[in-house]
From TrEMBL:
Gene3D superfamilies, per database record: Glutamine Phosphoribosylpyrophosphate, subunit 1, domain 1
Pathway info: Amino-acid biosynthesis; ergothioneine biosynthesis
Catalysed transformations (reactions): gamma-L-glutamyl-hercynylcysteine S-oxide + H2O = S-(hercyn-2-yl)-L-cysteine S-oxide + L-glutamate
Domain called Glutamine amidotransferase type-2: residue spans: 2-235
HAMAP family xrefs: EgtC
Keywords of this entry: Glutamine amidotransferase, Hydrolase
GO terms of molecular function: hydrolase activity, acting on carbon-nitrogen (but not peptide) bonds, in linear amides
Source species: Nonomuraea diastatica
UniProt-listed Pfam families: GATase_6 (PF13522)
GN (gene name): egtC
Protein name per the record: Gamma-glutamyl-hercynylcysteine sulfoxide hydrolase
Recorded superkingdom: Bacteria
Amino acid sequence: MCRHAAWLGAPRALATLIHEPEHGLLAQSYAPRRQRHGTVNADGFGMGWYDPARAEPVRYRRAIPMWADANLPALAQVARSGCLLGAVRCATVGMPVEESATAPFTDGRWMLSHNGRVERDAVRALADGAESACDSAWLAAAVFQRLRAEPDLGEALAEVVAHAGEKDPGARLNLLACDGESIAATVWGDTLFLHRHQDGVVVASEPLDDLPGWQAVPDRSLLLASSEGVRVQPM
């Protein structure tokens, strides 16, 4: 359920995650190749990027299929940053289809996307509230509340996922988050891939193209990427 991707490195356009690759997020919205749950991701999409003129990321979200937004191709070509995040949504059954339920969720400089599902009661105790009733919004709120207390992206994701996984053993908790200078991601019940480039790194639910170099990240892992490199550790 859902697909997401992020870039960290030299500035590049959002189109490099969405339209330009053969299997980018646009293609994954209607024909994902590695998705284990659901068949299409037509319940909304979102993207975010960091601009030097702003302390907080710029965000664009719609509650329509990605292919239905005629303005997106031009926007994705001119939106450039050294840290990008995009997502397409397949809503959990019973969850609302609305922009506030669509990733990326934001708080201050942090952005977050969730690929999976979780019982809301498994994370409600970790957050004071969420911008939407959907499970992903409650997960994001829990992570953001933890970050406001101790701003370590990897630790916040690992702590919330461990708590949610204990409360809901059937949960799928692939989180992808960034702060403009680093990326953190969890692999818990679905796929995640990593591709190192000379000028940066891509982290995505599934490969964006068929070029060599994509590495599957093991399940129950935490991935951390920054200017110092990439590290994958068991959770």
